[in-house]
Design brief:
167 residues, globular, 4-stranded antiparallel sheet, mainly beta, 0% helix
Length: 167
């Protein structure tokens, strides 16, 4: 056990989930979902050994704020996938567009320090003929970023894996 939720922290009411870890130099960075009373947000922690983690004082570091991240008064930014590009952290994350946690988009944000994020003005992947689920993984291959994500026509039907490529 390396990190447990802390109900005294904003955005960590009830549970934390979906970690992604990136090592830059001698430091590990972890981003994870925190479930709050009126939002799902993304928090950040750092570690020198990958075992003992310290929460970022700025947590949650990414909160819902864009119109596509809001469901009425509630919002969600969820399931971060983060890469280090040699200069900045890049994050791809999902958000829910209805109360059933369907019809999501995948958005992108950038940060120099892992704490202060600047979101793109528009989502990078929109729902198509199939619902998207915000579970995305990102890898770099040469000068391409490959984003893998899933979709399904209706709840309960077989999921499909998709690939988006950015140069």
């Amino acid at each position: 056990l390396v990190l447990t939720y802390d109900e005294s922290k904003e955005g960590e009411f009830g549970s934390i989930a979906d970690p992604t870890v990136v090592k830059v130099g001698e430091q590990y960075h972890m981003w994870y979902n925190g479930f709050g009373i009126n939002m799902i947000a993304i928090s950040h922690a750092t570690s020198k050994d990958g075992i003992k983690w310290e929460r970022d004082k700025a947590n949650p570091v990414l909160k819902p704020s864009m119109k596509w991240e809001m469901i009425g008064a509630e919002g969600s930014v969820t399931q971060p996938a983060v890469l280090w590009n040699g200069k900045n952290f890049e994050m791809w994350y999902g958000s829910f567009a209805d109360e059933y946690q369907r019809y999501t988009v995948i958005s992108h944000a950038i940060s120099q320090d892992g704490s202060n994020w600047v979101k793109d003005d528009m989502p990078v992947v929109l729902p198509g003929p199939e619902d998207l689920w915000p579970s995305a993984s990102a890898i770099r291959v040469g000068n391409e970023t490959r984003l893998y994500y899933i979709g399904f026509p209706k709840l309960g039907e077989q999921t499909k894996l998709y690939l988006a490529i950015s140069k």
